[in-house]
Structure formats: structure tokens, C-alpha cells
Protein: LPS assembly protein LptD
Amino acid sequence: MPKNAVNDTISKKDTIVLKKESLEDVLQTKADFQRRDFQKKMVYLNKNAQVKYQDMQIDADYISIDEQKNLMYARGKQDSLGRIIEPVITTQAGKKYETTEFQYNTKTRQAIAFNARTEESEGVIVANKTKKYNDSVFAMRHAIYTTDDYFIKKKDTAADYHLRASNIKLVNKASIISGPIQMYIEQVPTPLIMPFAILPFSTKRSAGILIPSFGERQDVGFFLNGLGYYQPIGEHFDLKILSDIYTKGSWNLRPEMNYIKKYRYSGNFSADFGTMVRGIKGLDDYSKTGTYRIAWRHTQDTKANPFLTFSASVDVVSTKFYNNTLNNNYILNQNVLNTQQNSTVTITKRFLKLPVTITGTTSYSQNFATGLSDLRLPQMNVAINQFYLFKSKTGVRSGLLENLTVNTGFNLTNFVQTNEGELFKKEMWDKMQTGLKNNIALGTNTTVAKYFTFSLGATIDNALTTKTVDKFYDPLQNKVVTETNKGVSGFSTFSTTASIQTTLYGTQNFKKGSAIEAIRHMMTPSIGFTYSPDFGGSGYGYFKNYYDANGALTPYSIFEGGIIGSPTSGMTGALGFNIGNNIEMKVKSKSDSTGVKKVKIFESLNLSGSYNFAAKDHPFSIVTINGQSSFFNNKLSVNTSLSLDPYKIIYIPGQDTGIRTEDFGHFSVQGFNVQLSYPLSSEIFGEKTDYGKKYKSKGEVRNENYYFDDDNYAHFDQPWTLNVNANYAYTRSSASRTPTKLASVGLDGSIKLTPYWNINGSTHYDMVTRELAYTRIGFARDQRSFTINFNWVPFGQYKVYDFFIGIKANILSDALKYKDRSFTQPNAPF
Structure:
């Protein structure tokens, strides 16, 4: 390159470097009074001050901007004493925040707020100091959280409840994560303290802590009942882990899993595993008992598959589970009174073109009184749909032959009765019985003489079983010994029936204008004859004999105690009768538009009995009378039954047993039962008052509305209900001179003391023992954003009180659950 050539290249030393602006966007300001200090690079805004920067807007009484440090400071309006009377309003991305003081760094985008009030979904957070790290994370010191609508809308200066924590982190504006957190009710601290909490602000299912109830039980001490954690698992499952903790050492763990697939099926698994500790270790009253309960519910949607359905209702408990229950819900809902528990799993198969339904069932029934359980594993039923044996010639069936129908099917059963210790062990399988039974039922009917219906029927039973019995008297043991024989054996039986029935009507009219205008009596009499041969004859081989201790020949069935039943002994040629009655009357009524109304005296009144022409003794049967009626506009329901023995019973002096003689015509009462049920309510005794029209003055105390009369006394509805149930039963037979009597009265009701105070309870009084049976008293208080429930069982084996506080906000339906429920379980768990 020539020396005199011009070099037009710009060196790096001559490059112009522009200083980066501290603000990334335009900062807009306005105020009634503005002042700029150029030397300190400060801007001061007073009265109705406002700053807009990017997506944030600050409205305050005073704002200062430090351009050198990139800081903005805002303060709310003060009174003469320096107290903030109007907050700073900060709006960012459409979200409003209220604070007394606010500081924001435009470079780092971090902020610090004092006494910040932040509304999220249905709740509000108020913190002494809040630091914003970025748009997703807020850290708060000494903060409270509540969903009280009155406090959120500033109708009240104090929340009816709040959760208080020293440190809270708001993440993604979607959930609160806190350290130790405590619940306050009306500014009063409660013992409900959690080591941590995750509170979601989402309509989706989310994890959370389950709030327990607390109280005291006389046998196991103070408790927390239902403390746990909820965790959704994917789209179709959720899991709850609950625990019950008692101060005297008892504990219980309750896992529950729910599942659902829309339009297919739904169900849940649940279990109880625990240890019941009673008394003091080292003393005679000390006991330690393990308990368990396993339950499964499965329901198939009816639309899923109409030809194949599956359902399950499994509930297996330890024998003494309800006597040692650690879940207080079983006490409050009266499950502890259960004497039996049943479990069933069923699968049903139907066919499009075949008239057959196949049902497979496995069932397990527990009897807590005897400690024995009945297991059917499995049981299969094949039912063939009813069909006509002959075709109709004209298209309209008439006559006995064209109306002849056939019902038939097969039933296969595997059955064993066992105790809890033998379940699924060799002893159980040795006692297992297998039986197959086929039933064929023929029936037909026709009209005779226009007003009578004549019916014929026949039943044939065929049965096979794998076990029969032999009996003999053992003089060494002085008892009758029963031996079991293994091997296939069976029997067949049949019976026939013929009956005729009609309907008769009778009406008695009274003088027009009288209180009773008419009485109508409808009677349905029927008579029938039943015949079956004597299957106890030696030719059939179904019965054998043994000599008892007195040397008397005693017959018995070799199928006795079997799962397929036993044939009947003795010929039956019985003429039976049944007379059904329905009695109504018409009475004058001002409330009815027609001027009259119908009153049912007896909805049904049935009389039945029979006479066996083939019987060697006591040919007349027990006569039974059953009645059902209702009174007071069908409110009072009455059900009665009466059993009469037509033969005289003579009781031997000094002995409790009696002898049934052949002396006919005495008709002694052998059984009598009457049940009454009457639901009472405030609506029955008076119409609902329209307080809005009756009283001009209306007032509100927090969330309760009242109407005031001229003397300023408050008025409001106090609806109440009271269900009264009464039962009386009398039983007597030739086996015992002393009759058995049962008599009890049950009450179940509720009353609202105020629009938000409710009292409910139930009790039963045994009139024979003159003692109160199961009794429960409950109180409920609706407190705007939460509910307080208190339940108390003062008498009986379990004396317990239970106290529960539940938050009603929808956003806390999972975390801090108000109701112990999930997406698959709208009601309390089973």
C-alpha cells in the first residue's frame, strides 16, 4: 500500500459506546403536585399520585422516584396522627394489591410491600412484610390467610377465621406454601396447628392436609380423628391417608383410594388398621386389641355394557371390630350397633339372542353375636326367561293351555360356615359343601264365570349335594352324634297347587251433609289346595331313624343342615285361605276443592290360614292377621301383625315348657307386633310466616337476617322436625311359658334456634328395661365461611364428644378439606 494512501478504517478506540438506559420502557407519572430535584435525581409526587411502568400501575397519596438507585417508593394517605387511612393500590397484569407502603426496583423488578393485602381466587392474604422476587414468587412475613367473604369485601374489619403463619410463600399465584400454621376463630387461637400447609388456588384437584376433628372418649382418652393427607393420582385416582390418635395409646390408620372412569365404572378401596388400648398397663383392666377392616365398592355404569355387568360391595372386619372401634364416625352413625356384616361380588352375563341370564356371586356374611361366618365361594345361577309352553291360536291367549308358562333354572353353590380363625385354612375346606339345584315351575290361569280367576301350578325340585349325615345316640357321651358322609347324593320333590280368587266390593252411603259420607270395603278372598307326597317314606331313602336316650325311634333327614335344603316329611293335602281387605271412607273436608277427601282406615288387612287333611295331628295351621294403615294425611304409619294358635296349650306345673293339645277353638295369642312411625314438623302445625310482609323493619347481624316488630324484638323462622318411631313385639309358644316382650320408642329430630344455629339428635328408650339406649346430640353453627360441628354420645358403651371445624371455600375443597370427600365421593365415605 502506498504511504500516501488514505486509511478510512475506523479504529476500535474511536468506536462510540452508548450507555444502557436504566429503564426499559417509558415511565409515566402524574399527580396534583410534582417536584423534581435534578441534583439528587429524585422525583416527588404528592396527592393523587400515579405511576405507570410497563404492566404495572401504582396509585398512592405520595410517590418518590430515585432515578439513580432505580427505586420507586409509595405511601398511602395518612391522617393527622400518621396512620394510613387509604392504601397504596398496585395493579400488575390486571391483579390488584393493597399496601400501606410499597417499594419497587425497576432494574431488578423486585419489590417490598408493608401490610400488603393480596386477593387470590376466593381468599385474601394480609402480610406485615412482602418481598417480590419475581413475577412468580412472593415471600411474606407474619401473614394471615382467610376466605371470609365479609372480610374480603371489607364489610368487616376482622375475619371470622384465619390461618396465621410466620412465613408464607406465594408461588405462581397458584398456591401458598407455609411453615407452621395455626387456625384462629374470631381472633382466638385454636389447637389446630399444622407443621406445614400447601393451599391451592385452582379448580383442579390438588394435594392438601385433611383437618381432623378432636374431642374425648371415656375409654381411650382425648383424640384427633381424621388427621391426614390427600393426594390426587393422575386423572382417574386419588388417595387419602387418615389417622386417628388417642392419648391413652390407641391409634388407627385409614388409607382410602377412589377411582372413576367416566361412563365406565367408579369405586373405592378403604381400610382400617389399628390397635385399641384400654386401661393402664400392669393393672387387671389393661387390654390391647388389634383391629382391621377392609372394604371395596365398585359400580359399573349402566351404559358401559348392558350384556356384562360387574359390581362389588365388600366389607370384611375383625370379629370384635365394632366393639373396639377407633374411628369415631362408626359411633356417630350407629354402625357400632351392627350385628351382621355382608359382602358380595357379582358378575352378570346376558345374551342378545339367548333367553338366558347367568349370574356368578361370591358372598361373605359375618355374625358378630355367634362369631361365625357364612362363605359362598362361588355361587352361580343360570336363569332361563319365562316362556309359554304352547302357542296362541288367535293371537290373544285364553284358556289354561295357552296361558301355561314355564320358569326354570340351575343354581350351583359352594357353602361353608366357619369362624375367623379357620378362614381359608384346611379346616374350612374340609367343611365346604357343594350343591346343585334345579327348579321347574309351571303355572297357568284363566277366568271362570266372568268374576273368578282360576290358577294351577306345579313345582319340581331336583337337587345334588356332596355331603349327607348319619345320626346315632352315643350312650358313653350321652348325646346324639352326627357324622358327615362325603359323596354325591340327591333328591327330587314336587308339589301342586290349585286356587281360585275374586274381588268383592261393598259401599255404605250415609246421609248427605254428614261428617262421614261413605265407607267402601274391597275384599279379595282366595282359596287354594296344595298337595305333595310323603317324602319321608322308606321308599325314597331321604330319611333314616335312630333311637334316642329314651329308646324312642326318631326320624331325621340325611340332608339335614345342607345347603340345598331337605325334603318334607309327611303328606300334605292342605286347603288354604286368604282374605284381603281394603277399607276407605269419604269425609267432609274444607281444605279439599271437592269438599270431601278419602281417608284410609286399612290400606290392607289380610287373614290367612290352612287345614291339612293329610295331617295325623294338628291339621289346622296358625292363623295370621296382618294390617297396614296410615292416618293424619298419611303421616302416621301403622303396621300390625297377629298370630293365633287355634289349639289349647297346657303348661306343666313347675316347668316352663307346655304341651300343644288337640283341643281346638282357644286361639291363644302366640305373637303380636305393632310398629308406628310419625314424622312431625313445624309445617304440619302451621303455615310458614312471610316475615318480609308482616314486619317492615329488617336488620342484619354479620351474616344473619332478622325482622323486627314495633317493640324491636327479632323474628325469624325456626323450622323443626321430629320423627317418632315406636315398636312393640310379643312372642309366646309352647316351648316357653314366659313370653318375650320388646318395646321401644325412638326419637330423631332437629331444630334451628337461629337461621345459622342447628341442633339435632336421636335417642331410643327401652320400655322393658326402662333405660335409654343409643343417644346422640349434635350442634352445628354456620359461621359465614366455616362450619362448627359438635357431636356428643352421652350414654352407652361409647361415651364420646367430637368437635370439628370445616372451611367451606371451594378452593380449599381438597387442601384443608371442609368435607372429607373427593371427586368420586360426593357424600361421606362408607
